Amino acid sequence: xxxxxxxxxxxxxxxxxxxxxxxxxxxxxxxxxxxxxxxxxxxxxxxxxxxxxxxxxxxxxxxxxxxxxxxxxxxxxxxxxxxxxxxxxxxxxxxxxxxxxxxxxxxxxxxxxxxxxxxxxxxxxxxxxxxxxxxxxxxxxxxxxxxxxxxxxxxxxxxxxxxxxxxxxxxxxxxxxxxxxxxxxxxxxxxxxxxxxxxxxxxxxxxxxxxxxxxxxxxxxxxxxxxxxxxxxxxxxxxxxxxxxxxxxxxxxxxxxxxxxxxxxxxxxxxxxxxxxxxxxxxxxxxxxxxxxxxxxxxxxxxxxxxxxxxxxxxxxxxxxxxxxxxxxxxxxxxxxxxxxxxxxxxxxxxxxxxxxxxxxxxxxxxxxxxxxxxxxxxxxxxxxxxxxxxxxxxxxxxxxxxxxxxxxxxxxxxxxxxxx
Amino acid sequence: xxxxxxxxxxxxxxxxxxxxxxxxxxxxxxxxxxxxxxxxxxxxxxxxxxxxxxxxxxxxxxxxxxxxxxxxxxxxxxxxxxxxxxxxxxxxxxxxxxxxxxxxxxxxxxxxxxxxxxxxxxxxxxxxxxxxxxxxxxxxxxxxxxxxxxxxxxxxxxxxxxxxxxxxxxxxxxxxxxxxxxxxxxxxxxxxxxxxxxxxxxxxxxxxxxxxxxxxxxxxxxxxxxxxxxxxxxxxxxxxxxxxxxxxxxxxxxxxxxxxxxxxxxxxxxxxxxxxxxxxxxxxxxxxxxxxxxxxxxxxxxxxxxxxxxxxxxxxxxxxxxxxxxxxxxxxxxxxxxxxxxxxxxxxxxxxxxxxxxxxxxxxxxxxxxxxxxxxxxxxxxxxxxxxxxxxxxxxxxxxxxxxxxxxxxxxxxxxxxxxxxxxxxxxxxxxxxxxxxxxxxxxxxxxxxxxxxxxxxxxxxxxxxxxxxxxxxxxxxxxxxxxxxxxxxxxxxxxxxxxxxxxxxxxxxxxxxxxxxxxxx
Lengths: 421, 522
Hints:
The structure holds two protein chains of two kinds.
Chain A (H helix, E strand, L loop, with lengths): L1 H26 L2 E7 L7 H20 L7 E7 L5 H13 L5 E4 L3 H13 L4 E3 L12 E3 L8 H9 L8 E7 L2 H16 L7 E6 L7 H11 L4 E6 L5 H10 L9 E3 L4 H4 L11 E4 L8 H16 L12 H20 L4 H8 L3 E3 L5 E3 L12 E5 L5 E6 L28
Helix pairs in contact in A: 2-11, 3-4, 11-12
Chain B lengths: L1 H20 L2 H7 L2 H13 L6 H8 L3 E3 L5 E5 L2 E4 L11 E2 L4 H15 L5 H13 L6 H10 L3 H15 L5 H12 L4 H12 L5 H50 L7 H22 L7 H23 L8 H23 L15 E5 L2 E4 H23 L1 H11 L1 H6 L4 H24 L10 H14 L4 H22 L1 H18 L14
Antiparallel strand pairs in B: 1-2, 1-4, 2-3, 5-6
């Protein structure tokens, strides 16, 4: 009885698998690739360019003959900056469109929203944005920076002689999970460097906050107590009024430098950057990095924007998440070639140790274990043309620590991906 | 082999005079960052007029170095050797300074400007040096003070010296320094006095004087802080008012729940952007005046769009508030998407012209930004204009007649349909003016209107529907209360608390701050 039911179950599952297989063989003239970025709503300002970058990279791969001899076909959906809608669209990509892989998400809350879907249906998601860590899913590859690849080196720079030897820190962020977790890590890190809690001020603003008068006045007051640096995790377009207020109230970078983790070339397009010269940003890539790979990357992107008549095509810029998207797609294509299939489990195995010569000028490696990229860290100062000049960088790519040692209890967590539920 | 050797020898010989000539600029260019910092500190302590061009070039980012690590200064697009007259080996690359060096350069420039002929320049330099005076400057400041003739500059230098004299061994000098610092209202003085008191000050009179000075400074700082908060409140209020004033007409007077009001603000801001672009292309010499030109254009554009909307959609929905709400909301989505398709999802850059950038230093801890001052003035101007329009013109009379009793007005021969259209156009046009102002302080993007629509409704409802004065009072009241709450409880909680307070207030007084007396519209 027991054996018979086992056999039954086995044949049933085998036939289902065979059906699935035959279906995918029939339909597989192209390989479908999902692109899950907000094209409307608050996050459209940042995510639209990632969608375009994904399409450009797919075109580039197709022009070279595609993957496994098949052309890639992009399936673009718009989750409209609506976090639950991310989960819905993700499910649609996996169950209806049957995509082999998805590139998408920006905010941590959108990633958290799709995560259960991808784990349930065993999908594959590439996430291209710097984030707070504290996550390692077998169904996600993280091509953006973990805190030790962005936040901590940036603060170390501010503590150093060249960075101004700051003694007091003003941690300013938008009120959601990424800034709060990052600041928690930074506070523990600063404490370990001998900065007392009275010299650290943590302030949060709502999403879309636009009146920074009080906050800038507070920064001024705080900075009278000693050399101060501001660490900004302000997200989205709130940065424009913040920097405008800084400039108008006469707070200069030489006195109080602001280092931002979410301000890149794309965000600076909406700002008159002359008053911001000297403020800092920490990333793993800047458009101004000089090397042949990057020259080609930037030129390709400009040509693509012109050819596709993207809005404001003559002023397009590249930035860190765009580079991470580009690297992610190429690495996935390499892994598929290596595995010889788009099957998620096989591709996941093939991803380990995958290398790619990235526009940042370094050969980046996907870690064998923790699903995060090894990345170099760069600190750039804003120039008057809206670009950054690199004032400090690491010697080479560093390994990600998604479980930050500065959060209690993380030392017990395994350095391998586990499903979150 | 011998030829190679002679070549090397020859080139060494050639290099010799160059090396001997290498001056300060070349040293600087060849040094690494920490050595450059050291050089700048030394220069600041021993200023000389010959060094000034180099420092100014450094400050303006015009110094470069060629392949041989020699310094060149860019002058009107051409590179000239900083020391000597050598030709550049290849095009010089611009020297990039980091923040620390840039700060030291500013500082060195200030110490060099103490030698300037112009008393005003010396005064500004002395003030700059007050901010952060390194001990190495003590002899320089003392010698300059003894030579200085101008009274104001003397005062400024004495104050800069006072910062250093807190460390002096003579208690009398310390006492004088402490008393001098007490007269400033500078936040830095507070820190210095505080650290003196926290440290090992043994002299009792100095200690007592320091405590007194600290109290004085704290008092002055408190005044500056309160004034700053009041100004921020007024500024926030003026922005709320500009955002809400158009709505006070379309919703307040006409009773149309206009969810597309925010998009009128957004279109006004985009008009500013387009005007700025056309000034850049067609008349770059008048670029700084573009916000003024944008005002009438934005008014016309949004007023026309408003009137078209009224004619085509809203007119058919009068008396059906729910449908109006949905229809206008739909219109707002269409407008947003239209802008997104035309201009892109990214925010566009609307730069403040020079006369709207920077701020006025009123007190040491109080800077009033020009753009905010101008916007407060502009908000009041728009209020007066609207009031005049509504109360002193025939159109205004008609509008008021129609809002108070539509049928009676129609019977008296008022063309109610046209009045509705004109009034809606006026409301939209004023929203457009608000958009021009908002473009000067915040983001210009397709979603601009969304972030203001709720605040606008709050202001109008709180002020009392149908009353201009109510909206004005509500806007400034909300602004000031918000800004006095924010430092205490933070921006997030502050916003929640304000909302809760408004809900309580409306519960208690549904008609808002001001209610229309007598017969109220339906």
